[in-house]
Amino acid sequence: MVHHIILLSSGRSGTHLHQTMMRNGLEKAVVLGELFNPSFPFGLEAQTPDFIAMLEEESGIEVDLDKARALANFFRDDPVFMLSALARVCDRLGHDYLCYSILPKQLAGRPIEDILFRFDCSCTFLTRQRFARYVSLVKARRLGAWKWVDTTSLKPEITMEGFLEDARSTDDWFQFLSERALTAGLDVRHLSYGADLNQLARTAFYSLQRKYEGICELSAFDFSLIPDFKQEREADPFRSIGNGEHMRDALHQASLLDYAFAEPAVFSADGYV
């Protein structure tokens, strides 16, 4: 039976790096990206023509990578059906694992619940400090670029309302899904962008290797395959925006500075982490 390794995270938290590490370090696995992104089911574009042909056979639909929005709708309209088809393709190819990520607002709560309760799967929650993640998100949206672009020189102004709306909706999403994963009896793991991924490639890989013990075995690879590139070279998020001092003071006055620098809570079998 193919085991689903589901990465549940929010944008700008290192999901692309995580999946790249898994793609290089996990054998007998198909590692995809944001399968339920409304623009395109990311990861399919990297698969072989034989893989795509098998997916067409198993799903009964035309998998035309040039019809991005139509293909995305197939995945979003019936995620369990499309994941079942993908799992059958993996099984035909002799793979043991199917890996993909789900981000907030890509699927509603009920379809994600269906996935968690339907498949043999484990969940990894990847979190990042709230304020730093939000600053990165605002910059990516302004530039319309999500990777391989240096955003350091861009200094947008951030509003308290915008930050808190994003942070609290993200908190709710993590809490709901972590509790549902535990209700489903799944193996839940937690990764922190700052502690586990925002490191040298070799260090980040060995952190993943430890975190996935008992679920899968990751093997070391040529770490030069992981580009040594940071989209943001300023470590202090307040110095990477145009109104940093104002935001620092506002958060301090509202007794929210600690909250801004903390990560969303994730519920595991040992309690909140």
Structure commentary:
This protein is α/β, with parallel strands linked by helices. The chain has a single domain (3-129, 164-235, 267-272), classed as Rossmann fold. Helices cover 46% and strands 13% of the residues. The strands form two sheets. Strands 2-3-1-4-5 form a five-stranded parallel β-sheet, sandwiched between helices. Strands 6-7 form a two-stranded antiparallel ribbon. β6 and β7 (271-272) form a beta hairpin. It is globular and about 60 Å long. The mean pLDDT is 94.
How many domains make up the coordinates? 1
The percentage of residues in β strands lies in 5-15%
CATH topology: Rossmann fold
What is the strand arrangement across the widest sheet? 2-3-1-4-5
The whole-angstrom Rg is 19 Å
